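[Meeting: bench + compute handoff]

Bench side (C.D.) handed over the final construct sequence. Compute side (W.E.) agreed to return the predicted structure before the next meeting so the bench team could plan truncations. Sequence as handed over:
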Amino acid sequence: MMKTVFIAYDQAHKEAVLEALNASLCKGYTLLPNACGRGSKTGEPHLGSHAWPSMNEAILTVCEEEKVTPLLERLRKIDQENPMLGLRAFVWNIEQMI
């Protein structure tokens, strides 16, 4: 079964997130640069404004189910090393694809 992993993260995490994707053998992805947002738990907004200048990025990747857990473990480690920057990942089932 294929899964979609949506990863939202502070731009400072970009290289580490790309490394986690490569190490987990998740080759294909779509990068969404300059994503604004605010986390639901902790941290500050990332709005690209004068008051909140930080910005996020997001990545969508579709990969085999067995690659998801290793990817999430790598992403969790990135987040734990710099928790105030912010990183979240969400997983969805793929119903169909062409």
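W.E. noted at the follow-up: The longest strand covers residues 2-10. C.D. will use this when planning the next construct.
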